[in-house]
Amino acid sequence: MTTTVELLDALSEQIRSCRLCKLGESRTNAVPGEGGAQAKVMFIGEAPGADEDEQGRPFVGRAGKLLRKLIEHIDLEDGEYFIGNILKCRPPGNRDPEPLEVEACKPWLFAQIAVVKPRVVMPLGRFAMTLLLGPKLQIGKVRGTVIERDGQVFMPTYHPAAILRSPRYQKVIVADFEKLARLILELEP
Ligand code: SF4
After folding, report:
1. What average pLDDT score do residues 57-79 get?
2. How many angstroms separate the alpha carbon of residue 113 from the centre of ligand 1?
């Protein structure tokens, strides 16, 4: 029988050779995401940046270091979380993803969520939240709240890059991560 690790690895392999949109031509490396195949939580950002494109790994730049500190703060261990993005390839110059690119790429993320079956998906920032939960929500109003869609629990928060732009975001993001930690425990099977 195929294990979840094998299923997730197989998806990563397919993503690394994907050419379903034009970003497949300009990227250095696709960035499938990484973490536990049975993670309790999936952190989902917008798209890889320059460092991620270079290394083929998610959240390895400055914002990524902040994300990893937040994860440490709530005592999640390796294997208990998965980190990825909506788009698996870097838009040139970090421009906004185009609708056709998002349409082409989002089935990869949905397939990853279907394999991992996390207790919670945490969209990081407005872009990821809009794709996963629809355009009507405002991140400033729903961050740190529990939203259920089709049996999947979500808790959005700001993208950690917001802290780099303004330190005032740190307190609210830390508070949201602490709420996330409590929610993960509440949802213990
Ligand atoms: S961005 Fe997504 S759909 Fe486009 S080439 Fe990369 S993996 Fe494929």
Report:
1. 96
2. 17
Residue 80 has pLDDT above 90, yes or no: yes
Beta bridge partners of residue 121, listed in sequence order: 42, 154
- What is the rounded distance in angstroms from the CA atom of residue 127 to the CA atom of residue 38? 25
Calculate the CA 18 to chain-centre distance: 19
- pLDDT score at 1: 81
Q: Are 36 and 116 contacting, i.e. CB atoms less than 8 angstroms apart? A: yes
Helix (H) or strand (E) holding 11, with range, is helix 4-16
Residues with CB under 6 A from ligand 1: 15, 18-21, 23-24, 30, 87-89, 101, 104-105, 108
Into which CATH architecture does domain 4-184 fall? Answer: 3-Layer(aba) Sandwich (3.40)
- Which is nearest to 130 in space by CA: 120, 144, 142, 118? 142
Cα–Cα dist 132/89, whole Å: 18
